[in-house]
């Protein structure tokens, strides 16, 4: 039986992925800072742990507990993330710190802990959820976008380093997914979210990419095309476009 562990798996995409892997008969564990987020009707077979990815000892301990008596870690997925928008406004220092700690330090911690467990196996799959926004590189991008671009770059470095050990690294860069969190962040109005993907469709796409050891997945396809077009624009022009987009999305 395969052992699957998902950091940031107590809600949202992480939890939906956990349920999907469970449906295939795998042994699945998840962790998060608040285990009360796990739905009350959670399947008893899901193993739930409390951990903070920004603290390496925390994620290391829960993984050791999850693997107790089991030989290999087959798949590790990092879905943990923190979001605050600051293109058209300001964010607090606490919000900025949480994004940096979770999205960058947490990403490195997860890679390191998974790597140490998988290297002796000479096999394994590591995946990380980034964002399609991280594909774009321009001066005035939001802190969130810059952290997610860092996630993509970190994953690229680990892909190159771990490939000789038979460990695949899959970077997932999704567009807008119709999750409860996205609805809450937008007052339950997603009319300004282009190319919206439902959760079930997103899970199938993500699962397939990890299963086939795809290096980078950008979806949906229309969003990928849009990002490709925007990425060739001059940085100054892109700055204006993205600022106006952020302001428009904040309007009622």
Automatic annotation (TrEMBL):
It holds the Pfam family adh_short. This is SDR family oxidoreductase. The keyword Ribosomal protein does not apply. Keywords: Membrane, Oxidoreductase, Transmembrane, Transmembrane helix. The chain crosses the membrane at residues 225-243. InterPro entries: NAD(P)-bd_dom_sf, SDR_fam. SUPFAM superfamilies: NAD(P)-binding Rossmann-fold domains. Belongs to the short-chain dehydrogenases/reductases (SDR) family.
